[in-house]
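Example (one chain per record):
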Amino acid sequence: MHFPSHWAKATWRGTNAEGDPVSREVWGWSDTSPGDAHQVAEQRAQRLAKTPFGEAQDNSYGYPDRPLREPVLRRLADLPDAQAVITRNAHGCDVLNTDRIVFIDVDLPALTPAGGGFFAALFGRKPANGEDARIRAEADKIARLETWQRAHPELSFRVYRTAAGLRYLLTSALLVPDDPLVADAMAATGADPNYRRLCQVQKSFRARLTPKSWRCGADRPPHRFPFTDARQATAMKKWQDAYERAASGHATCLRLLDIGTAPVAPAIQPLIVEHDRLTRAESSLPLA
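Predicted structure:
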């Protein structure tokens, strides 16, 4: 889990296969100084000049040769034996990053937006149109987790609904991303392949804390971190204010149920409280 303190940009210029002039921006990073970050950027630009244009893209999310270009908003200091930081991703969402507290992201097929259908099924209310399909898809995915957990009774999970799928939080143990048990759990539960790769590359787990802008009626961010001048910073502050107003009427996930009877690990309990507060997981707000 690495979020550098300094970033700098260099520009690579060359020609494509047809001989036309092309260019690409390349970022460098450092925990020491802006000068060191600029030196890394120049070195990466020089290496890029030796590869065919189009062979690699510098903006690939979670690409193996670079950390995520995200600002650190806050570090959670009250977690024994684990680290957690909140960053802001390229879409303007706050994201929780942990080194040993396991989140698993599971996508569902595109369905009608979710409401309270899971509990409607539990308590006998007739689901609304499209809700029953969501319930069936969720039940199938959750059954996979239950099957896997029965083979690992020392582990317990908290299950959340998201706008596009499910989120599982391992509550009873601390594990690192390259632990074989984590890989087995993600494979057994059908975790999103891109998320699995990101965890391996960045050596961390991630959970989005705030809604996606396009789901709550806000514009997309006008700029991406780091900002090149005061004008961009001002524009982003204005966007952030509007985004927070739009997001205030939405939740990021909804707590559904717990699986397993193993007690919550003391190192994880503070994070659960913070995660559920920031995502509004106990609310009845629409998901975004």
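Caption: Helices lie at 34-48, 117-123, 131-150, 180-189, 193-202, 230-247, 269-279.
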